[in-house]
Design goal:
Helices cover 39% and strands 20% of the residues. It has 17 helices and 21 strands. The protein has a seven-stranded mixed sheet, with helices on both faces. α4 runs parallel beside α6. The chain is globular. The termini are far apart.
Amino acid sequence: MRTVTHRLATGVSAPASPRQSDIFDPNSGSVQARVDLGDKAVLDAAVDAALAAQPAWAATNPQRRSRVMFNFKALVEANIDELAALLSSEHGKVHADAKGDIQRGLEVIEFCCGIPHASKGEYTHGAGPGIDVYSMRLPIGIGAGITPFNFPAMIPMWMFGPAIATGNAFILKPSERDPSVPVRLAELMSQAGLPDGILQVVHGDKEMVDAILDHPAIAGVSFVGSSDVAHYLYQRGVAAGKRVQAMGGAKNHGIVMPDADLDQVVKDLAGAAFGSAGERCMALPVVVPVGDETAERLRAKLIPAIEKLRLGVSSDPDADYGPVVTAAHKAKVEGWIQTCIAEGGELVVDGRGFTLQGHENGFFVGPTLFDHVTTEMSSYKEEIFGPVLQIVRAADFEEAVALPSKHQYGNGVAIFTRNGHAAREFAARVNVGMVGINVPIPVPVAYHTFGGWKRSAFGDTNQHGMEGVKFWTKVKTITSRWPDGAVDGGNAFVIPTMG
């Protein structure tokens, strides 16, 4: 059986891993491979290699670093079908979603191709008599990324792209559930011309995570995952003197105003709520129709649209979505469905018990719809992370603004309306980090920045865009003066702000 191992610098031998974890095929439920689970000794070997390689990479001019990014982008595009098939086989998302996963990561790599411009400092000539002040953006040294199972290509590229482009070495710890694509990306980075030791992949569970958080040579850590773990990582990492960005969970709302185009809303919800089996932090699992009349019209259109959704194996080109990632996650999602029933939610479409002929042991969960869900229900308060859509009815616009604003999560929100004033008011007032106006999944383009509020994000710097450049660099500011008696007459130095 295939074993996925750590990818360290050439000549660095990873200590033997006495522990392994199973990698499942979500379509069949069978174990298809195993992954080594590392420990502090494995991490120490990776850090030693990174320490040896990083100074020369930091000294490499930004144009040359940019060329590596250009080469990597071309290699990923040339191998995208292979990468998508590998991703689908371990995660379960259909091939189109897998390609989208890779493409959204590549968009950040495209941004990183412009790193010579993005990493420029500032300069002031004549800040005082004969005095110039300028700043430089310098790499922090060694960064680490801890990434989730749901986007095994996109989120690693969100992290290692800006980190490496700005001159850092990077150690990636992907999810042990689907680790093969991150390893393959590291191989393509090497083919693109990245020096040995600058990007390494280590595998593991909490033991490896804690080793990363505690290692004194790792200067910054980026994380995406659940909110409880994000909070833990943030506290432990900051206590160890690191800069940390930790993105957590979500419960994104879609507000549907009475004037919205409901046919388009239903199409958007079909993808945003059920695409990738709902295993997305930017999924739209809560829809908020404003007014009972809007709710009834929306419900009437949603039911037949949901019943038409096609579940299939990840290689089925006609499938709308595939299985969830593991049997444990399937049980968790179905447990939340039962909880919502017990709490009084009206089960309109039940996705439990779905089986696919020939794949009866696959981890499939059918699309599920609830109505009359209330804010007191735990199934509303917590993230389900599966193909479950809940209708929470709002009496008016003010209640629709309040629902996502008061929720513990603040990742994304969307409003569907033809009314420009309502959209503008909503975008300005809602207490959520990313807002879509007639856009169901408002993930910003790569040259903007990604990040939520409240328990959806810990730390004060977001992912990718200029925020990513800032996170992976530190600023050094220089005040310089070249004395010349003929110019200043031998006058004493004057601090620029006092001149």
